[in-house]
Amino acid sequence: MSNSKQLDGTLVELRAAERSFAAAGGSFLALRAVSLSLRTGEFAAVVGGSGSGKSTLLNLITGIDRATAGEVWVADTPLHTLTEDDLARFRARHVGIVFQFFQLLPSLTALENVILPMDFVGVLSTAQRRDRAIQLLEQVGIREQANKFPDALSGGQQQRVAIARALANDPPLIVADEPTGNLDSHTAHEVLMLFSRLAREGKTILVVTHEKEHRSLFRKVFELADGQLVNAETASSRREVSACTG
Q1: 3-class secondary structure for 68-107?
Q2: Which of 32, 63, 221, 242 has its CA 20 to 30 A from that of 232?
Q3: Could you read off the pLDDT of 152-165 as tens digits, one per residue?
């Protein structure tokens, strides 16, 4: 990422990024020349129908997968050049991932689930990891649930534990794949408002969602169709449209 990008606060940048996969009839292009950027502290969404390329885009940004063409930069790091081991190390320190189905380990308490990513990185002492995990559970509003196992928690509480776990190693980027897909509308709104607060506190949040009623919460909305970026909407552009049609 160029120095000018660092200075303007850009955290994520894709430059004509593509991802192709081998298929029976040849290669299949799942993502086509996508260029986009996110600045530190932005709260953004990726929308699109099934097969539009949303998951592929997230996999490139998180380093789970790599681009077959173009460039992917996150936190001043060219992910498209890294080895698999380097990508794993990068992901552990710089990206927090929140899943639709929570993916908490059922044999661990909420507190232990949050501590686990810190165990992998090994920067903090055991006591420091526990203290940080408690602080994170308090930050997401469920400190009193620390010693409960996932099956004793509601869906909303499990998702808050998952968010605390994603924050464990203090990554600058949080990526959430349909994080409200298994929640009722009230709880879904609470979770998205929590993400919004985290963005105001400096985290960059990128959410894949199909829920159009929450669109106004996001500063940016990227719309994909057939692997292409077909629209990039900002909060300011929505206000301009509203003013023109009001």
Answers
A1: CEEEEEECCEEHHHCCHHHHHHHHHHHEEEECCCCCCCCC
A2: 63
A3: 999 999 999 999 99
Judge if pTM exceeds 0.85. Answer: yes
Q: 145 — alpha (psi -120 to 50), left (phi > 0) or beta?
A: alpha
Contact status, residue 46 vs residue 222, Cβ threshold 8 Å: yes
Structure tokens at 165: 């776990």
* Beta strands 220-225; 43-47: pairing state: parallel
CB 51 within 8 A of CB 57: no
Cα separation of 229 and 34, whole Å? 6
Helices (H), 83-231: 84-94, 110-121, 126-139, 155-166, 185-200
Main-chain dihedrals φ then ψ at residue 11, nearest 5 degrees: -105, -35
Residue with tokens 């409200």: 180
**Rounded CA separation 24/183 (Å):** 37
Distance in angstroms (rounded) separating the CA atoms of residues 65 and 39: 22
Looking at the chain, how many residues does it have?
Answer: 246
From CA 168, how far away is CA 190, in angstroms rounded? 20
